[in-house]
Design a protein that fits this description.
Length: 170
């Protein structure tokens, strides 16, 4: 099953799971991320990650009835939206490791700006946080995600450590 996308003609927006979708290429997304990082400094990663996490969590919860396996559904959605190949098979309600291959943000960043000194995948980290929380019936705040390897800093793929406090439920 593909990601259900609808057009709200009255508001002139594209929606999926009640959340707005805007499609941009890696050049635009990396330019936007660069501007946010320049303007917000050390606060930027948290803002970018939290924004993605909140939207994806709400979206996946709204679409949960359409998928038997919400983790697999999130993986497909991530790819269908052009963000890369997400592998959540190493993540359970107790945490684990998620992997993103061909990250839209990491590969886009290196194509536009060259290598970074720090990881670039704030949006994918937030996507993973929101998807894992929704898939395992956890509060969003009970899931934390840290990027431990990033293509933009020379890693083969992007890796994320996922930690949960599974005692906190929806």
């Amino acid at each position: 099953m593909g990601l259900p996308i609808e057009f709200d003609a009255e508001r002139a927006v594209v929606l999926s799971g009640g959340q707005s979708l805007v499609f941009h290429c890696h050049f635009y997304n990396c330019a936007l991320q660069h501007a946010i990082e320049d303007g917000m400094g050390d606060a930027a990663p948290g803002v970018l990650t939290a924004g993605a996490a909140e939207v994806v969590h709400a979206q996946m919860k709204a679409l949960a009835s359409q998928a038997e396996d919400l983790s697999a559904f999130a993986e497909r959605a991530f790819s269908e939206l052009g963000f890369g190949v997400l592998d959540l098979s190493g993540v359970s309600a107790q945490g684990g490791e998620a992997i993103v291959r061909a990250s839209h943000y990491a590969m886009g960043w290196t194509a536009v700006h060259g290598a970074r000194e720090t990881p670039a995948c704030f949006f994918p980290a937030g996507f993973i946080q929101g998807a894992v929380a929704a898939a395992h019936g956890l509060e969003l705040a009970s899931v934390t995600v840290a990027e431990t390897g990033c293509y933009a800093v020379g890693a083969e793929d992007c890796r994320f450590t996922v930690r949960t406090n599974s005692e906190v439920s929806r």
